[in-house]
């Protein structure tokens, strides 16, 4: 009897730990959502480009030059999509910024037409953004801003803490850290949510080489000194406003940071003055 009990005590935790790997795998390999939109649908001139990351992945991108005479100082904005969509989902904001800026949109690893076995939730996506910065630098751009939605905003903050080629960051519905987001997402599992997320983070560290609990937007924000503009609706049902508030606290040292937390709007819904505010931020 005692032997059977001890065996169960050993088997059940091991089975649970293996189950968390399956859950993590479903998170980092979600069904891909294709926007099925192209720059032509928005009457935007574009060039298909391929970015190559430091770890050898090829990423699909669109370079969208603004029309008319180029400024003496070349400025561009990199636009990064969220999870689990692709670059076509960001053409709406691209169309709003296009009159004033050259733009570069690309699919993060795994998503869209880019290579990659899985997403790393921001860890290795920093390499994706590095490759976009390399591309623009080779084309002579001296001032580069980054706009990111959700995961894209997290990648922007993580990279801005390390790469000084980024002059400004704007983010919409950015999560503060994967651990908190995971515990909120799996809150229905009650007392099991913390061991579930904790085990998933252990697997993530083994797969990614770094822990998303450590390499997090909220930690990166403490090291970012360039202008930052964060937008987060208080009605967001997927990434709660507490994430925006935590990021605001982390950016307390940065007197060039701005925040807009409107009351209305679900995840991904843009406030009425959204485009105007983002454009004005990058113009400054």
Automatic annotation (TrEMBL):
PANTHER family: ALPHA/BETA-HYDROLASE, ALPHA_BETA HYDROLASE FOLD-1 DOMAIN-CONTAINING PROTEIN. It comes from the Bacteria. Residues 76-174 form the AB hydrolase-1 domain. It holds the Pfam family Abhydrolase_1. The chain crosses the membrane at residues 6-28. Keywords: Membrane, Transmembrane, Transmembrane helix. SUPFAM superfamilies: alpha/beta-Hydrolases (SSF53474). The keyword Transmembrane helix applies. This is AB hydrolase-1 domain-containing protein.
């Amino acid at each position: 009897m005692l032997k059977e009990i001890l065996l169960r005590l050993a088997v059940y935790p091991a089975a649970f730990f293996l189950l968390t790997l399956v859950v993590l795998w479903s998170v980092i390999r979600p069904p891909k959502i294709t926007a099925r939109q192209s720059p032509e649908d928005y009457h935007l001139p574009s060039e298909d480009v391929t970015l190559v990351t430091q770890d050898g992945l090829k990423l699909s991108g669109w370079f969208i030059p603004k029309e008319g005479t180029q400024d003496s100082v070349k400025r561009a904005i990199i636009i990064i999509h969220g999870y689990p969509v692709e670059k076509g989902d960001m053409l709406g904001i691209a169309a709003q910024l296009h009159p004033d800026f050259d733009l570069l949109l690309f699919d993060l690893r795994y998503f869209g037409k880019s290579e990659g076995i899985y997403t790393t939730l921001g860890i290795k996506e920093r390499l994706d953004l590095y490759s976009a910065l390399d591309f623009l630098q080779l084309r002579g751009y001296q001032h580069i801003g980054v706009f990111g939605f959700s995961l894209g905003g997290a990648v922007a903050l993580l990279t801005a803490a390390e790469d000084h080629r980024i002059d400004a960051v704007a983010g919409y519905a950015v999560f503060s850290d994967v651990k908190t987001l995971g515990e909120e997402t799996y809150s229905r599992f009650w007392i099991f949510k913390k061991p579930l997320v904790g085990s998933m983070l252990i697997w993530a560290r083994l797969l990614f080489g770094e822990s998303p609990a450590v390499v997090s937007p909220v930690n990166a924000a403490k090291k970012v000194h360039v202008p930052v503009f964060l937008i987060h609706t208080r009605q967001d049902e997927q990434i709660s406003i507490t994430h925006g508030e935590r990021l605001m606290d982390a950016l307390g040292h940065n007197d060039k940071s701005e925040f807009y937390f409107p009351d209305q709007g679900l995840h991904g819904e843009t406030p009425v003055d959204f485009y105007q505010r983002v454009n004005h931020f990058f113009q400054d």
